[in-house]
Design brief:
single chain; 395 residues; mainly alpha; 12 helices
């Protein structure tokens, strides 16, 4: 190999990568703990960035729909508007972003409030029905035990003569609670909840700042990249960033559309079959279906629990209905709707959901579909470019 300047840099890079990889393998636990500490420190800002990215799609839609596109240049002098029109245009430009963001936050909070307002009262009524049914259930248990004692008198005599030292049992329970560290666990859980709420508040505030100044922040990032990296490489990075942003935005839109389709299917099917809580369960399934493929199972559990207190037989049939609609949605509707929105074939959508869910859980399901779409697009472009360079046509 010719040891020119370019090859020497490549060789030094390979050596540095090997040294870094060897160090990482030898100090894996230290690096893992350090990485966890850094992620925990940056958690509010990462949460804020993710929230800003999610809210950017509806905010951008509202901004374009209600206020139109921003005009970067003024019209010709003879066609320029008067002072009143210029003042109105300036006011519209300044207020477009804050009003769009406020409407977006209000819409998201309204959807969450409607879901909670519909679900929580029904769950409270269900628990009240359970509490009212407990005395009858207790009487049935007593009758069953009486009949059982008549059939097995030896067991009844044994239970009658059984003597329990309740004071000793209570003392043992107290000692177990003290030694098991339950109090410290409860305190740690309460601390985690408070810390999570603080991180959430910081993340929301950070997301608002990002959305209000996203063009300025984007310009600053591009300036830094162009100042320290080659222009061709920065152009490619900007192109990939735009592709990723568009893909993730289309994925969010497709996910919301798919959730609405699934919720509507449940509402129509339950209305036709005369199931109770058709509208409530349809809304709940649509809301939980925002989690790809498996999110609707949460709605199924809550819906079956609600129907169970009204009619246990219909609760069983509801589970059967859910399995049928879930298979139809997961294997036909979801890959088509979401796959078409992100430009990813249906088979790779299922593969992305399965791999992402096994690696990172719910977050992996949400991230891997658009991520695989970006990689699929880049690989397709690179493959077509290489084929053109080699003058090959594969059919």
């Amino acid at each position: 190999m010719d040891l020119n300047k370019r090859n020497l840099y490549k060789l030094l890079g390979l050596v540095a990568f090997g040294v870094l990889l060897n160090f990482s393998l030898q100090h894996y636990e230290v690096l893992k703990s350090g990485l966890g500490w850094i992620i925990g420190l940056l958690a509010p800002f990462l949460l804020g960035a993710a929230t800003a990215f999610i809210l950017n799609t509806p905010m951008r839609f509202l901004e374009r729909t209600l206020f139109g596109e921003r005009k970067k240049t003024l019209p010709a002098r003879k066609n320029r508007p008067g002072r009143a029109e210029l003042f109105y245009e300036s006011f519209r430009r300044k207020m477009a972003r804050p009003l769009s963001l406020a409407l977006t936050l209000a819409l998201v909070a309204g959807v969450i409030f409607v879901v909670i307002f519909l679900i929580v009262p029904e769950l409270a009524n269900t628990f009240q029905l359970m509490a009212a049914a407990l005395p009858g259930f207790y009487a049935q248990v007593q009758e069953w035990l009486s009949a059982l004692s008549g059939q097995y008198p030896e067991a009844a005599e044994f239970l009658k003569n059984l003597q329990l030292d309740w004071q000793a049992l209570l003392q043992s329970a107290v000692n177990f609670v003290r030694s098991s560290g339950i109090f410290s666990s409860v305190f740690g859980a309460a601390t985690s909840v408070v810390s999570g709420l603080v991180d959430f508040f910081i993340g929301v505030v950070f997301a608002v700042y990002l959305l209000m100044q996203k063009e300025k922040l984007g310009l600053q990032c591009r300036k830094v990249l162009y100042a320290f990296l080659p222009k061709a490489r920065v152009d490619r990075l900007v192109e990939i960033a735009r592709l990723s942003s568009d893909t993730f935005s289309r994925f969010l839109s497709g996910q919301c559309l798919e959730a609405m389709i699934l919720g509507t299917m449940f509402f129509i099917a339950m209305t036709i079959l005369r199931f109770p809580y058709a509208l409530l369960i349809g809304v709940l399934v649509a809301f939980t279906a925002l989690i790809p493929i498996f999110g609707a199972f949460i709605g199924c559990i809550v819906g079956a629990f609600l129907i169970l207190m009204v009619d246990p037989v219909k609760a069983l049939w509801f589970v059967v209905l859910f399995l049928v609609l879930q298979q139809l949605e997961g294997n036909l509707i979801y890959p088509k709707v979401v796959g078409n929105s992100v430009g990813l074939p249906s088979i790779w959508v299922l593969a992305a959901v399965s791999i992402g869910g096994s690696m990172m859980g719910v977050v992996g399901m949400l991230v891997f579909i658009p991520l695989c779409s970006v990689l699929y697009t880049l690989l397709r472009e690179a493959t077509n470019r290489r084929l053109r360079q080699r003058n090959l046509k594969v059919q």
